[in-house]
Amino acid sequence: MFHVPVVDISPYAEGADPDQQAAVAPAIDAACREVGFIQVTGHGVPDEVVVGLGAAMDSLFDLDLATKKSWTRPAGENRGYTAPTSGPPARFSTGGTSAAAGSRSPGR
Q1: Maximum mean pLDDT: which of 10-14, 49-53, 78-82, 87-91
Q2: How far is the C-alpha of 67 from the C-alpha of 61, rounded, in Å?
Q3: Would 101 be classed as within a structural domain?
Q4: Cβ count near 100 (within 10 Å)
Q5: How far apart are CA 101 and CA 84, in angstroms?
Q6: What are the beta bridge partners of residue 40?
Q7: I want to staple 31 with a disulfide (CB 3.0 to 4.6 A). Which of 2, 5, 24, 81 is the partner?
Q8: Is the residue at 77 inside a domain?
Q9: DSSP code, position 14
């Protein structure tokens, strides 16, 4: 089963002591290297903003394919719409990725 690691960054958001802050970086590094995805908590973003972002993403992916494709951007730009692929996940130094096949695919 696919597991997305959860990393609490509140030591940075709340100005904790350096030892607590130092523990965050290895957790993020491990998540990125081992899984490629991360769920960040303790960021201080209000819940209503997070819920609004989720609703906006759902609205985008609920659109018909032709409309979504009209927002496709050139490779290397981390904006717009990128259709899922059926191959292995792409890795870009710019941080952009494509959806992985199988159980890791977002299904939309």
Answers
A1: 49-53
A2: 10
A3: no
A4: 19
A5: 8
A6: 7
A7: 5
A8: no
A9: T
Measured distance CA(38)–CA(31) in Å, rounded: 6
**Residue 33, token pair as written in the block:** 């290297």
For residue 36, give the nearest of 83, 11, 2, 75 by alpha carbon: 2
| 10 within domain boundaries | yes
Q: Name the amino acid, one letter, at 53.
A: L
Question: At which residue do the structure tokens 């906006």 appear?
Answer: 56
3-class SS of residue 7: strand
- Rounded CA gap, 98 and 77, in Å? 12
Let me know if residue 55 belongs to a domain.
Answer: no
The number of distinct structural domains making up the chain is: 1
Token pair in block for residue 41: 């908590």
Exposed/middle/buried for residue 40 (C-beta within 10 Å: 0-12, 13-18, 19+)? middle
The range of the structural domain enclosing residue 15 comes to 1-44
Q: Would you state the structure tokens that stand for residue 90, as one six-digit string?
A: 């792409």
Q: Which residue has the higher pLDDT, 6 or 102?
A: 6
